[in-house]
Structure formats: C-alpha cells, structure tokens
C-alpha cells in the first residue's frame, strides 16, 4: 500500500469487511468540507493510488438536516461549490446527492472497493457512520480531520474544565501539527458514472431542498468557502493579532478571526490555522498563545464534552453542583421575564442585550464576550433554568452560522455552570457565574457597540469581517 502520512491515531476501522472488487475508492465527505489540509481526503487519495483506482467523493445533501435553515444551507453550498471545483482540478469527482448522508454514502459504496469517512462528534453524526459501517459491502475507515488532537488521544473521559484538558492537549499537539501531504491522483474519476446535484447554482439547489426558509442567508456579511476563510485569517494575522490579548473582549474592536463558522462546516482546518499562526513572528508569542488557547483548548474541550456526554443537549448534562444551586433558587423573584418570541423580536428592556441579538439575527455572528452576557441574561429572565437552557440552544442553533456545533452545546452549558466553578451566591444564579451590564460598561465600549448595531440594523454599516 502507498504510504500515507496521516497519523495512526486519526485512523479508525469501523467494520471488518474485506476489500471488495469495486471500481473506485470512495471518500464520504460530510464534516470536513474542504479539498486541502484534509486528512481524510489525503488518506483516501493514497489508498486509491495504492489500489490503482480513481477516487470519488460523495456528499449527502438533505433538506431536513437537524435544525438547519436557509442561512446554514447557503453558507455551506458556497463552500461546496468551491470544494467541488478544486477537487475537479485534482481529477476527483465530487458527487453531491440529494439524499440523507448515510443513504448517499451507501448508494455510492455499492461500487466502491474501500470507503473512507471523516468524523463528526454529534450524536446523529456518529450514528450515521455506524449505520454505514454496518451496511457497507467494503471496509469503512474513519479519519479524524477536524481536531488537532484526536479526542481519544487527548483524554479517555469527560474533562471537568479547560484547566484539566489543557496539559493533555499541549502534551500531544506537536505530534499532530503536520500537513497531510496532498497526493497526486494516478487515475482520474471525472468520468465516473455517478450523477449528482449541480451545486454551482445555489438558488436552484435550495429550491429543490425545500429547506426551512424562515431565517434568511447572510451572504452580505459572511460568505462560505475555504478561500474566504483564508482571506479573513490573513487579515486577522496582518491587522489584529498584535492587539488580540488587549482587544479580543472588545465587541466593537473587531480583533477576532471569525473562524468559528468556517471550522463548524469544516471549510478550514484547525491544523492549518495553528500552523499558519506559528509562522507569525516571535514578538507576537503572547497573542499567539491566547489564540491557540481558544483554538486548541477551548474548542477541543467542547469536542471532549459531546463525545463523552450522551445527553449533551439536555439540562441533565450540567454538573451536579450547578443543578443543585439553581434548584435552590428556582423560585427566586425575577424582575423581568421574557419568552422566546419576545427575545427573538428584541423586546427586552436591555439595550446591550438587544444589540447582541441584533448582531445574531442580522449577521449570523455575535462577538464571544457578548455571547456570554447574552446567555447569562436569558438565564436571569427565564421562568426556570431548564427553560433557559433550551431557549439558549434553540436561538443559538437557529441564527448562528456556527450553531448546531459541539461549541454550541458546551457554550450553552457554560452559561449554567458547565466547565466552570462555583462563585459568589446571588439570587436566581445561586453560585453559577453572573454577568452584569456594569461589567460591560467597565470593560469595553459597549455604547459604541450598541450604536454600531443600530446602524447595522438600519443597513448603514457592516461588520469588519466583510471588508476586503
């Protein structure tokens, strides 16, 4: 077999099928929606060369993906169009089937000698891969392509907090910060007899999908695709990395990378980001370490959480101390109470919160410091903590481009005590961490942020990420 330089810890055989006499090697692309820095793709390419067969890539596109809507589909299709073109340039056919992801994989696997899939950590993603492995007529191999340190390598259990995972991932990170060498395909698959959807016509695809159209696309603010992700990251490294530690909690300052949505759809590799960050001069070491804390420790803490926590989307996923303290304060008086409809329509008394919700609804993004405040206020204003947890998740997954992600569930949990510790006791929150409007006023130019969001809502301005 032609040697692949993909680390062994990234590779997992999901079944014990022997290689069949298929016509091609199949890469079932679902999570890692890119043609570069993709360990699963390159592993499949090396396998195809070893078997002297072409490589075909299949993607299952369904209109009822859990909680997805027009906003998410548009961003994803923009990325798939670019990925398809770049795969074609390598002699690899991308077949986008209008089918559920596992059905698409199994349909294409009927003529495959070997099937490679990437990895997703959400419950339904793991079930899809298990179903395909059980039914496929050929070997199925899963390759981790969207984490720096594979989750089992980092830890065998759910970690309590960032401080417990941090030394583990840093111990292993250097071994996994390598680019998977692109393989030159010896045989083209462009003439493969497999029909799929034309993803170059986004509007037509969206009509065929009949997807939820209740939340509009945000192409005006954020466009999908690997090339766009790289442009934004280069802008961040050029203009903003020098003030990252000072300004990253300033919602009006724009000193952020905007990579979360691209990481969510697998349009950019975390390994690529970490390696590119490492090329920045040593005079930025403090800022680089702060960014790597978010990319490596915090992001992979979320992967650890959903992988080791079956009920990650349930209130019961919270640590016992948090549930107990919130239960003791369940009947505390709430000065303000808002239902989900009032929140979605920005009908609260808090102009800071309304500004954050404006950014979320109009752009699909919210500055992380405001996300924390946004979530804490929902807890403060909800009838029960259980209601708050579900409201946070519902709004997060509906409006954010990076919603429906391990970070979404870990973030919602953090609002109510996950990956945190007890703090000073107070009404409603008990010993769960509290955030006050006065903290925003003290730490950042929150009035400037409010004014910017008013202009954005009026159509007079755009977030910095759209520049260039």
UniProtKB/TrEMBL annotation:
<dbReference type="GO" id="GO:0003904">
    <property type="term" value="F:deoxyribodipyrimidine photo-lyase activity"/>
</dbReference>
<keyword id="KW-0238">DNA-binding</keyword>
<comment type="similarity">
    <text>Belongs to the DNA photolyase class-2 family.</text>
</comment>
<keyword id="KW-0227">DNA damage</keyword>
<keyword id="KW-0285">Flavoprotein</keyword>
<dbReference type="InterPro" id="IPR006050">
    <property type="entry name" value="DNA_photolyase_N"/>
</dbReference>
<keyword id="KW-0234">DNA repair</keyword>
<keyword id="KW-0456">Lyase</keyword>
<dbReference type="Pfam" id="PF00875">
    <property type="entry name" value="DNA_photolyase"/>
</dbReference>
<feature type="domain" description="Photolyase/cryptochrome alpha/beta">
    <location>
        <begin position="23"/>
        <end position="151"/>
    </location>
</feature>
<dbReference type="InterPro" id="IPR036134">
    <property type="entry name" value="Crypto/Photolyase_FAD-like_sf"/>
</dbReference>
<dbReference type="InterPro" id="IPR014729">
    <property type="entry name" value="Rossmann-like_a/b/a_fold"/>
</dbReference>
<protein>
    <recommendedName>
        <fullName>Deoxyribodipyrimidine photo-lyase</fullName>
        <ecNumber>4.1.99.3</ecNumber>
    </recommendedName>
</protein>
<keyword id="KW-0274">FAD</keyword>
<dbReference type="GO" id="GO:0000719">
    <property type="term" value="P:photoreactive repair"/>
</dbReference>
<dbReference type="GO" id="GO:0003677">
    <property type="term" value="F:DNA binding"/>
</dbReference>
<dbReference type="InterPro" id="IPR036155">
    <property type="entry name" value="Crypto/Photolyase_N_sf"/>
</dbReference>
<dbReference type="InterPro" id="IPR052219">
    <property type="entry name" value="Photolyase_Class-2"/>
</dbReference>
């Amino acid at each position: 077999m032609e040697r692949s330089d993909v680390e062994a810890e990234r590779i997992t055989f999901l079944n014990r099928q022997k290689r069949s006499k298929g016509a091609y090697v199949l890469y079932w692309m679902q999570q890692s929606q890119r043609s570069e820095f993709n360990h699963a793709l390159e592993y499949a390419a090396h396998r195809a060369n070893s078997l002297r067969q072409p490589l075909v890539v299949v993607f299952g596109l369904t209109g009822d993906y859990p909680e997805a809507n027009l906003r998410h589909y548009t961003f994803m299709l923009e990325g798939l169009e670019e990925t398809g073109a770049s795969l074609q340039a390598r002699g690899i056919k991308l077949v986008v089937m209008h089918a559920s992801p596992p059905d698409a994989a199994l349909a294409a696997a009927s003529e495959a000698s070997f099937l490679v899939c990437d990895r997703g950590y959400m419950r339904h993603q793991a079930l899809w891969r298990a179903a395909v492995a059980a039914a496929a007529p050929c070997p199925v191999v899963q390759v981790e392509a969207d984490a720096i340190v594979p989750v089992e390598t980092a830890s065998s259990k759910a970690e309590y907090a960032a401080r417990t995972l941090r030394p583990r991932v840093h111990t292993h990170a250097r071994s996994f910060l390598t680019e998977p060498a692109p393989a030159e395909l010896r045989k083209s698959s462009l003439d493969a007899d497999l029909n799929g959807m034309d993803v170059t016509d986004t509007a037509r695809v969206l009509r065929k999908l009949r997807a939820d159209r209740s939340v509009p696309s945000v192409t005006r603010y954020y466009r999908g695709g690997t090339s766009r992700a790289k442009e934004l990251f280069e802008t961040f490294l050029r203009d903003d990395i020098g003030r990252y530690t000072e300004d990253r909690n300033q919602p009006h300052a724009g000193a952020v990378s905007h990579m979360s949505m691209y990481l969510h759809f697998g349009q950019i590799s975390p390994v690529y980001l970490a390696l590119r960050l490492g090329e920045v001069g040593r005079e930025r070491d403090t800022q680089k370490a702060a960014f790597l804390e978010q990319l490596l420790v915090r992001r992979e803490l979320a992967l650890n959480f959903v992988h080791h926590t079956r009920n990650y989307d349930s209130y019961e996923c919270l640590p016992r101390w948090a549930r107990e303290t919130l239960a003791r304060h369940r009947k505390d008086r709430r000065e303000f109470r808002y239902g989900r409809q009032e929140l979605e329509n920005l009908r609260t008394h808090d102009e800071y919160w309304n500004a954050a919700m404006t950014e979320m609804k109009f752009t699909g993004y919210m500055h992380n410091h405001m996300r924390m405040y946004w979530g804490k206020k929902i807890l403060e204003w909800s009838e029960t903590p259980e209601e708050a947890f579900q409201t946070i998740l519902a709004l997060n997954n509906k409006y954010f481009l990076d919603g429906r992600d391990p970070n979404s569930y870990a973030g919602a949990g953090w609002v109510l005590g996950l990956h945190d510790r007890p703090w000073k006791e107070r009404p409603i929150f008990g010993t769960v961490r509290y955030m006050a409007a006065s903290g925003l006023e003290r730490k950042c130019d929150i009035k400037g942020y409010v004014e910017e969001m008013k202009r954005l809502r009026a159509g007079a301005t755009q977030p910095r990420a759209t520049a260039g």
